[in-house]
Amino acid sequence: MTAEQNTVHNEELSVVDSLITESSTTQDEVARMCAGMILDGQLAVLQRQLHADFLKIPTSFQLPPNYTGLDASKPWLIYWPLHALEILDPDNQTDDILSRIGPSIMACLNELEGAFGGGNGQTAHLAATYASLNALAISRDEQVWSQINREGLYKWLMSVKLPDGGFSMHIGGEEDVRAVYCALASAALLNIITPELTEGTAEWISRCQTYEGGIGGAPGNEAHGGYAFCGLAALCILGNPVEMIPKYLDVDSFVHWLSARQYQPEGGFSGRTNKLVDGCYSWWVGGCWSILEGVLPWITSKDVLWSKADLQKYILYCCQSPRGGLRDKPGKSSDFYHSCYVLSGLSEVQHRYSFRPKLRESKSGEWSFMWTYELESPDIVIIDEQNVVGPLNPVHVLPAGVGERMHDFYAALGTLEL
Amino acid sequence: MPLAYMSNYSWEDIAPIPQDDGGENPLAPIAYQDDYKTATGYLRAVMSVEEVSDRALQLTSDLIFMNPAHYSVWAYRARLLFALKKDLEQELIWIEEVGQQFPKNYQIWNHREVIVDKYHNPIRELPFVEVMLELDSKNYHVWSYRQWLVRRFDLWLTELPYTDRMIENDVRNNSAWNHRFFTVFGKGVDIGQSVIDDEIDYAKRAILKAPQNASAWNYLLGVLKRAQRPISEIEEFCSDLAAATGTEQSVDVDIDRIASTRALEVLADIYASRREVEKATQAWTLLAEKYDPIRENYWKFKKAQTDQHFTATA
Asked: Would you say residue A368 lies in a domain?
């Protein structure tokens, strides 16, 4: 494939149904709108400075009162923009910003329970704990790392573990695949994974794969891009992904479902069958591709199984907000969540990840830190200097090297008596 | 106007705990409205001592209307309701008001599950769920809640007719199709072949209405696979929809008459399962080059996978 060819797909014969329903009406509108914005030839430029300015808002200003709806997601309001800022340009991450992460996150710690909540004085919660630890990884703040009570956090994780192998988001909270991923990713960073913590969990994830091939939030629920990533990434923490993925997932049907997520002419991914494309699935679905390509040699061969060029176009033409920040689709406002996962998706497009287990016997809890990357081949996607963003760890959704450093810090402290 | 928790109760004995965003120069502080700032100050104070009182319950009501995503408030509220032995039906009515006002909020579903589980009576549930699905027919949390209800109270009988209706409204509503699959297979009992036949017919009729509809195709193929029936069973159906004719060696697609590219894809799989590699390759090539070029590499991969398989087993 030449560079010219990888930019255009316009010779298709389209087969379109005449029956109109609510789903097809909204789909047609979005397809038309996106097609009108995506131009052939030269790529749109990534508005790096504009996005950086948007992402620095939480570091420079008080967020306006309409952010109150995210008052129970404070650690996310720190992790999302700071992760995005770093892959956009590592120089954005000043010492001043990094030094403020520790105190801001530690204010969310629920000392009585032993894990992090969505804000000061809030109940400990798995999503908040995941976002808090990711933010602390980005801080590189070893002084704060050494303050974390890992025994206490481990006990709390065990308290939200359920007898069927799954996890609930908080005591008395909902059980879903997100909770599983957040629990395992947190435990991996802190190097506190034990057989008790993970017993029955891979089997539980396996039960969440649906007849469509994707993964739902819980057994029986509809296949969904976000949960698909959480389930797949969790398997990559639970053991050697080369063995875990084919053992617990029907890979052929998973790949079929994943492949159907990319739409034409938009080029972006949808999260579920017959739903609209949304920029955030550039990561949730794209991240699944990264992992599969890095783990399963028969998928890695030469070409990736989907169109990276078309996703990059969707991101650059349709997901950049003129006011700065990244968005779901044209007509929507940008926000920190979409900025984080659209830019992670762009990073995913531009890099090829490989799972490289170390030669010596690997210990449990290390599996998600053995990823390497290289820039994607120009035969597959055009990457110019203006648009390139940094690499990441595809299991933890952290800038490459950052989670590894935190894990190594705790590994060096030796084994905990758990 | 002061909020109900303030006007109805005295808080003089409570010292509010102010918000602490961490350090002198915290990241992502929010400029809260005064009402919210005051109410969360009292919330932290009563939650820190796990106060069980009517005023705390009223405080949670007021706070939920200010920020329904505040999961700690919901969890505290559930503990209060049980400890104070409150009328749980009143709570269900109250949740319905919150749900209508904040249709996208999802914390209410876990809360409702906790309440209904204790209340042991699902009488209000399906009507409320239906109202919420009318507002958003693909609301993931509402469908998940419905599945929980069906399992918890053994409500399987209502479900097939309900998915009929939802699929009738929008044949592309994948959540309704997924719920149908759950309804047919989720009970975990043996299903007779006649039920499988009915579901295959149902999916086929839906496909004929909109032959490109992935939801109905996924369902049809999912049912066949679950029932361990071969996809070759639907070969004629697929050939018609793909306008495909051919011999043992080659397949010909009438580009003016093809109604479903998914049918062509399934045909390729049927051919491959019979080792008619040449015909399967022709179908995948058409998909890669003409009908579905954004997935070109996936179709090439299917072909390579088949070649490899037959080389390995030859």
From this structure: yes
3-state secondary structure of A265: coil
> Out of B85, B104, B187, B279, which one is annotated catalytic?
B104
Q: How confident is the model at residue A67 (pLDDT cuts 50, 70, 90)?
A: very high
Strand partners, A269: A262
Q: Which residues contact B200 (CB under 8 A, 6 or more apart)?
A: B220, B223, B224, B233, B234
Residue A96: closest C-alpha in chain B? B25
Nearest to A262 among B211, B213, B295 (CB): B295
CA distance B40 to chain A (A): 9
From A78's Cα to the closest Cα of chain B, the distance in A is: 6
- Hey, what are B23's tokens? 């350090």
Reading the block at residue A349, the tokens are 């497009």
CATH code, A326: 1.50.10.20
Q: How far is A190 from chain B (nearest CA, A)?
A: 22
- Domain coverage including residue A57: 32-39+48-61+70-412
Query: Catalytic pick from A140, A308, A335, A410?
Result: A335
Residue A341 lies in a domain: yes
- The complex's ipTM works out to 0.96
Could you state, in chain order, the average pLDDT of each consecutive group of 10 residues for chain B (314 residues)? 92 97 96 97 98 98 98 98 98 97 95 97 96 97 98 96 97 98 90 95 98 98 97 97 92 93 97 94 95 93 85 64
**Overall number of domains in chain A:** 1
Instruction: For residue A17, tell me if it sits in a domain.
Output: no
Rounded-to-integer distance, Cα A24 and Cα A263, Å = 13
- The closest of B96, B98, B37 to B65, measured between CA atoms, is B98
Q: Using an 8 Å Cβ cutoff, are B111 and B145 in contact?
A: no
All residues of chain A having their beta carbon less than 8 Å from the beta carbon of residue B219 are 211
Residues of A in contact with B31 (CB under 8 A): 62-65
Tokens (6 digits) for B258: 């093809």
Q: How far is CA A270 from CA A30, A178, A211, A341, in A?
A: 12, 18, 18, 14
The reply to whether B310 touches chain A by the CB within 8 Å rule is no
| CA distance linking residue B194 with residue B182, whole number of Å | 17
End-to-end CA distance of chain A: 54
Q: Which of A9, A11, A72 sits opposite B72 (nearest CB)?
A: A72
B190 contacts: CB under 8 Å, gap ≥ 6: none
pLDDT digits (tens, 9 = 90+) for A203-250: 999 999 999 999 999 999 999 999 999 999 999 999 999 999 999 999
Number of CB atoms found within 10 A of residue B8's CB: 11
Domain assignment present for A306: yes
A371 - beta bridge partners?
A: A355
Interface residue B300 vs chain A (CB under 8 A):
yes
pLDDT of residue B23: 87
Q: What span, in angstroms and rounded, lies between the C-alpha atoms of B190 and B193?
A: 10
Which residue, among A74, A136, A79, A148, has the nearest Cα to A108 in the 3D structure? A74
B259 to chain A, any CB pair closer than 8 A? The answer is yes
Closest Cβ opposite residue A273 in set B169, B209, B215: B215
In chain B the domains, ranked by start, together with CATH numbers, are 1-86 (no CATH), 197-314 (1.25.40.120)
pLDDT in tens, A280-292: 999 999 999 999 9
Residue linked to tokens 């739409």: A263
- What are B177's two structure tokens? 């199709």
Segment holding B253, helix H or strand E? strand B251-253
DSSP A314-372: IIIIISB-TTSSB-SSTTSPP-HHHHHHHHHHHHHHHEEEEE---SSPPPTT-GGG-EE
